[in-house]
Amino acid sequence: MTETPPPRVRVTGPPRRRAGVVRTPGAREIDAETALGEVFMRSLLREQLVLALRVLAALALTLGLVPLVFHLHPALGEVEVGPVPLAWLVLGVLTYPWLLVLGWVYVRRAEHNERDFADLVGETATADEDQR
């Protein structure tokens, strides 16, 4: 016995609505752009802004002060590590791992802020979504 193939489905883009998601009152407030939803969004944006400013401050205090240290202590400009001057080593080599660390910390904290926001708003998914 031959089975008939399933009907063809034309995929034109992502689904318009996620099936099985329960919209909580907090999420509905945000979607409806009410005053409460605006407060929720402002709190998330404020947290993300504070995080960005903290990472920027860490960057400025570490890498931004390196030229000042070399200016205030000119003898450091004469120090060499092997054939490479210390200033080149610090600014040309050690800078990039530090930028990677700052980026990694920023992304982890930003995702943590978003998870906390989702918990605050009460966005939940059904068991079908959790199993995927």
| Shape category | elongated
As laid out across the biggest beta sheet, the strand order is 1-4
Helix and strand string, N-terminal first?
A: EHHHEEHEH
- The N- to C-terminal Cα distance equals 34 Å
Summed up, the domain count is: 1
Helix proportion: 55-70%
**Average pLDDT figure:** 79
State the low-pLDDT regions, or none.
124-132
Number of continuous helical runs: 5
Structural class: mainly alpha
Largest sheet: 2 strands, antiparallel
Strand content: 5-15%
Radius of gyration: 26 Å
Total count of strands = 4
Textual characterization of the structure:
- The protein is mostly helical and 132 residues long.
- It has one domain.
- 63% of the residues lie in helices and 6% in strands.
- It is built from five helices and four strands; from the N terminus they run E-H-H-H-E-E-H-E-H.
- The strands form two sheets. A two-stranded antiparallel ribbon has the order 1-4. A two-stranded antiparallel ribbon has the order 2-3.
- A hairpin with a 2-residue loop joins strand 2 and strand 3.
- Helix 1 packs across helix 2 and helix 2 runs antiparallel to helix 4.
- The radius of gyration is 26 Å and the shape is elongated.
- The C terminus is likely disordered.
